[in-house]
Amino acid sequence: MLLALGGYGRAQLNPRSDIDLMFYYCSKGQEFAEALAERMLYVLWDLNLEVGYSVRSSRDCINMAEKDLTVRTALLDTRYLTGSRECHAEFEHSVMNKIYSWNSKKFLQEKVVEHERRMGKYGSSVFLLEPNIKEGEGGLRDLQTALWMAQAKYKCRNLRELIMKGMVTERQGEEFERALDYLWRIRNELHYLSKGKNEQLRFDQQEKIAHFLGYQDSKEAPAVEQFMQDYYAHATHVEHISSYLMAKATGTLDAPPERKVHSSHRPVRRSVGDFFYIHGNELRVEQDDLFEKEPALMMRAFRLAQVQGVKISIQVKTLIRENLHRINDRVRRSRIMTGDFMEILRSPHRVADALRTMHHLRFLNHFIPEFGRLYCKVQHDAYHIYTVDFHSLFALEELIKIWQGKYDKSFDLLSAVANDIEKKELLLLAALLHDIGKGQGKDHCNKGADMIPTIARRLGLNKEDASRLEFLVRNHLQMAHISQRRDLHDDALIVQFARQMGMSENLRMLFLLTVADIRAVGPDVWSAWKGLLLQELYEKAYDILERGDLYLESRSERIRNRKRRVVELLKDEYSERAIKDRLKLMSMRYLFAQRSENIAEHMRLIMNRRDQALAFNATNEPDAKYTELTIVTVDIAGLFTMITGVMAAFNINILGAQIYTHKDGLVFDILQVRGHQG
Hints:
Helices cover 58% and strands 10% of the residues. The protein is α+β, with helices and mostly antiparallel strands.
């Protein structure tokens, strides 16, 4: 007898899906089954089909199912194709009935572990910009895993039987089928577009699939961004459907009995507040209609879960989802909502967990509608790894890592600055909202900042905090732009930037927000070199803000002291007159930008050059992961172009350059470079 397994057994094949077959034999039919399998398989392989097969008896099936989770799972999807009906009846009686009679507890536990392992491998975020449609979160495997667990728990062969037994409602069944059909249509086209086996929605394929599904470019967004925004929304819904069904199968949806005396077999039920209780490390509600009567208490659920260090149960999550439509402007402005939200941000623990859960349940979209416009919003480029909303959450998490001291070894200035922040919650709110203008088109910094006064009033922020929040959103790209694209040795630029900051607290917050924003873009975007540039800009601007007019007055004195120090360092090597003459030829910009020790090293390079056309020095900076090249030569037209051309020819990336020309025409160029392999 021939049986279909896996996707073929479920009658769900895509163009490049594997075909899994089992040649099942009864009593003494092994030799015939093996011979038949060999003849059939060669034909299928000649047709270039990917075929997985097995030749088994009932004993083989039972033995392997007991030992191997994958085999037991595969048997749940068996479908009769052809062969002896008597043999099929024996298979149903000897194999399937026995498997369904087994205790499902171990199977369910192993499936949960397998699910968590898969999330770790393929990404535990729905919002990856190139998601895996089969194995990633919100993909086909989530639905299949949930169905397998329900089948094992309730002894059902398919979704229809689950509905018939009342384990799944008709509405839930329809949602399951629609979710499956949506993913199946996309996967079908993905397979047609791919040359080999591929389950990842890559950038070039996303555009083609978007047009295939009928999306068209509009003023609001290109077709591909509209498609991916819908995909992420569907994937989030898939994750909810599957997690609900998995929770039902594992029994975590079942409400516990009233509080009883503690025993080793039953977790204690503990009341928290008037309407909530904790059972089994999960927050639950006393009454299912609580949020219908008091929708503002949805925020209280997140706050209590944070304070108590527990998860929000599937029961409460489902109730929140069902009552999101009740969050109107009056509810948003209520003291319970705004007060608890700001307390969540002020808390030293589990802030990110609370906000991630709010986002996952779409609660954040309803509480801050402006943020809701970013929901699943894609930036279709290779630079941004996550959707805009998830990037904002990651930026907030980066700030939390700074406060936790995660970057003390690589960038110790961050913790020192972070510990001086007066209102941590305001900076976290800025990270959450810094990109809200991206839902409105170009110039997102100013468009986002223009929304802040309304949001601030709704949250009950005072005038000073509202003004600072608006400032941070409007200027959140300034430090990155200036540090990476402007000359940090230009005093006028630094003074102008410091005046724009206005006060030290603005500068501190913007510095930390900039670091968090860059780190949250993707794993390879941040570099130690960018950190050094930001630190230099921060320290120079901070010096101006703290010292005011004294900064300008001290510049000439600082340069005089620097010259004296250089003479002191070099007087044993060169004549004092030669050193002073060379110092006179150097520009004020150079003398102010370089430290005394650096100037002395540069002087040695110049003095030792003598009549040579070129002097050259290379110094490795292992901590910052770059090499600093110092070049001394006579100025000619197009010199810097020639230098950069040589670098490009050898695939060397120039991170930064400081170019100086002395009064006698001598060129002094300092370049920070990195090879193509880092």
